[in-house]
């Protein structure tokens, strides 16, 4: 695992792209795609369904003081990116009254890379509870772009930052929680990565020049997996206490995605800047060196019901009766066992903006 982090650092230092891209400090808009990691309200544009836990307190308590449909105690990565570039927080693309001139957020909780027919073919339709795959999000974006800049979007989009993902996490969740083994899920990784790659190509074709492509996270370090797939066999865990087989799946996905990003970049070297954002190494380093980031707990959820080693119970999750938040979320890596705290997202964003967890870093001269 350490070798993967070292490789990322070497690649960040060695990367040198000769491109004609927009200056990062002058982005006029941000367009974000993805799932619950960066959803800023798409699932709640028609109200706040009470049965969805993250529409309930204590979600949102740290920054907003109220639930905002973000799956965190406060802000997420795209919020910090917006602040960095002097832009307002991105409105959800499904909002009927928002002004999208400075960007929009297509991300929606539960989103997958693959379309519904893919999951039907695997007998997993019941594991996909929200239909917002890449293909749909690209359609939502095109509708917004047409409304904002009409048929003359090239210069507008060339001066915008695009964040495409992460995608893939919910695809694997559907398979794993649907009874597939890690090995069975792994067989579909090339197909998932191909779908992400086609989405990147689509954005470039529409006029995007600066695109951040995040990989998936080290799911084997997350309380939900550590609780549900707890093992009595010590060999199932790495030296930090993460489940190795789950992290191996994430690493395999990220390796294929990085290779594909490099291929796409080589095809568009003079017209686009494709940045691979390393969610995995950023989070794994927090697990390895928590004190460096101000964390006293990396495996125990901040918001939970007090149950078990990881403070995670699927039947009493954050936002449900019986669950409560810790006194200081900033000392925890995990907010609800599935998503991270605002403090963690801030650290990740810094690593994307300046390095070392983005190749090349978003900020450039």
Q: How would you describe what is shown here?
A:
It comes from Sorghum bicolor (Sorghum). Keywords: Glycoprotein, Hydrolase, Signal. GO terms for molecular function: hydrolase activity, acting on ester bonds. This protein has 365 residues and is α/β, with parallel strands linked by helices. The protein has a domain at 26-220 and 242-277 and 341-359: Rossmann fold. The protein has twelve helices and six strands. The chain has helices spanning 2-14, 77-84, 116-121, 134-149, 154-158, 169-177, 182-186, 189-206, 223-228, 244-267, 279-288, 342-354; strands spanning 29-33, 103-105, 160-164, 210-214, 273-277, 358-359. A six-stranded mixed beta sheet has the order 2-1-3-4-5-6, sandwiched between helices. The longest helix is centred in the C-terminal third of the chain and has 24 residues, at 244-267. It is globular.
Keywords:
alpha/beta; disordered N terminus; Esterase; six-stranded mixed sheet; 6 strands; SGNH_plant_lipase-like; hydrolase activity, acting on ester bonds; 365 residues; glycoprotein; Rossmann fold; SGNH_hydro_sf
List the helices and strands and how they pair.
Blueprint: H1 2-14, E1 29-33, H2 77-84, E2 103-105, H3 116-121, H4 134-149, H5 154-158, E3 160-164, H6 169-177, H7 182-186, H8 189-206, E4 210-214, H9 223-228, H10 244-267, E5 273-277, H11 279-288, H12 342-354, E6 358-359
Parallel strand pairs: 1-2, 1-3, 3-4, 4-5
Antiparallel strand pairs: 5-6
Helix pairs in contact: 2-12, 8-10, 11-12
């Amino acid at each position: 695992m350490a070798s993967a982090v070292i490789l990322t650092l070497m690649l960040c230092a060695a990367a040198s792209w000769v491109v004609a891209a927009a200056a990062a400090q002058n982005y006029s808009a941000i367009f974000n795609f993805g799932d619950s990691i960066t959803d800023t309200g798409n699932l709640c544009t028609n109200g706040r369904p009470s049965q969805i836990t993250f529409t309930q307190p204590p979600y949102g308590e740290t920054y907003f003081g109220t639930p905002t449909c973000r799956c965190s105690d406060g802000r997420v990565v795209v919020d910090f990116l917006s602040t960095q570039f002097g832009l307002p927080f991105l409105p959800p693309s499904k909002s009927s009254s928002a002004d999208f001139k400075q960007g929009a957020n297509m991300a929606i909780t539960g989103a997958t890379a693959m379309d519904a027919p893919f999951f039907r073919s695997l007998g997993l339709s019941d594991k996909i509870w929200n239909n917002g795959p890449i293909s749909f999000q690209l359609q939502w974006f095109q509708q917004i772009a047409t409304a904002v800049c009409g048929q003359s979007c090239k210069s507008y989009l060339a001066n915008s930052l695009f964040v495409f993902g992460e995608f893939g996490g919910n695809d694997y969740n559907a398979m794993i929680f649907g009874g597939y083994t890690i090995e069975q899920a792994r067989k579909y990784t090339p197909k998932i990565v191909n779908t992400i790659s086609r989405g990147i190509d689509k954005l470039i074709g529409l006029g995007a020049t600066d695109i951040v492509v995040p990989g998936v996270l080290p799911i084997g370090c997350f309380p939900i997996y550590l609780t549900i797939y707890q093992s009595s066999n010590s060999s199932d865990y790495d030296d930090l206490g993460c489940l190795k087989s789950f992290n191996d799946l994430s690493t395999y996905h990220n390796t294929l995605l990085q290779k594909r990003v490099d291929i796409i970049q080589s095809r568009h070297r003079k017209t686009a800047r494709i940045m691979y954002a390393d969610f995995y190494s950023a989070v794994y380093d927090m697990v390895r060196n928590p004190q460096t980031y101000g964390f006293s707990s990396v495996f125990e959820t901040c918001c939970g019901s007090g149950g078990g080693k990881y403070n995670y119970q699927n039947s009493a999750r954050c936002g449900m009766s019986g669950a409560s938040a810790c006194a200081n979320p900033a000392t925890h890596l995990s907010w609800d066992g599935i998503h991270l705290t605002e403090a963690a997202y801030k650290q990740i964003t810094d690593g994307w903006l300046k390095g070392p967890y983005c190749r090349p870093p978003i900020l450039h001269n």
